[in-house]
Amino acid sequence: MPVTDPTLPPASYVTGALWGLFAISIWVGWILLTRFGVTTSLPPFDLTALRFGCAGALLLPIVIRRGFAVRQVGLPLLAAICAGAGVPYVIIASAGLQFAPAAHAGALIPGTMPLWTAVLAMAFLHERISGSRRIGLLLIPVGIVIFVGAGLTNLAAGWWRGHLLFLLAALCWASFTVAMRRAGRQGLTPLHAAAIVSVVSAAWYLPVYVLVLPHRLTAAPWGMLVIQTVYQGVFVAIVSLYAYTRAVGILGASLGASFASLVPVLAMLTAIPLLGEIPKPLDYVGIAAVTLGVLLSSGAYQALVTAMAPAPTRKTHLDPGMAHAKAPSSPEN
């Protein structure tokens, strides 16, 4: 996929940027709302049930019309897609937010996802990482160590448990991303994939949740249940995916993916007034390094340079890490 279209008018860049900003605002809201939910009245098992119960019901018509794409992409690939973006990811990420601040989730999940994706893509898709992308991948762990350094040494705070879960959640989403790259070559669209993930997750998880797992839905306030259900099941699972794919469709793969680099910064800043999580001065240095690392490792820096170049010298080129992808998948939520 071309990183940028050299004939794209400025108005289209603005439109694509607005779609991208809309998508990441939903992802940041997911981190904050989930953090609030798991630390008050709704444990991870409950939030997962609300998310896939709602999204599964809304997206069921797509699966009925298009099927589960087993013949199209194969059962192993579908299993990786459903596991990477389904119940395991949501439970692990939500559980991590019980132990560590929202800003740490914003840094560790979208921050380390490019690292995991690069490793998996090199192993399974035989992709090569070079140039500015390699520099970005090196910057990410440096920034993370700076940002969460206090949590690594302060065992009494218990943040290390959330950090480990965030790293595992990032690995889950990276697995989904790599699997979707391969499935995308075989014609599986992001919306169809989201429908399959939601329906399959609801089909097996809801019975287990009702019969086996502990739940506190009846003890939670009705207002919180409505807000979490609509946000988790509609905005995160459906609307953010649509907005992100629109941004990618207009701007190209790498430039569209660049908006993920804003998630750590926005999660940290919005957590200050909404959750009272005050960062330390060194945190800003760490989050800046993570943001720059995500920007470079996604290939977005090259895309931005190309997009800002004068029209006569602007060239369409391929990002080695995105060349065969129909569209990258968002580090949502």
Major sheet size, sense and barrel closure: none
What general form does the structure show?
globular
Percentage of residues in strands: under 5%
Q: Extract low-pLDDT stretches.
A: 1-6, 313-329
Mean pLDDT: 82
Question: Percentage of helical residues?
Answer: over 70%
The ordered H/E elements are: HHHHHHHHHHHHHH
Q: Helix segment count?
A: 14
Class by SSE composition: mainly alpha
Q: What gap, in angstroms, lies between the N and C termini?
A: 25 Å
Give the beta-strand count: 0
Radius of gyration: 19 Å
Plain-language structure description:
With 333 residues, the protein is mostly helical. It contains 14 helices and no strands. The protein has helices at 10-38, 44-66, 70-73, 75-85, 87-99, 102-125, 132-153, 159-185, 190-211, 222-251, 253-257, 263-275, 281-297, 300-308. The protein is globular and about 55 Å long. The two termini are 25 Å apart.
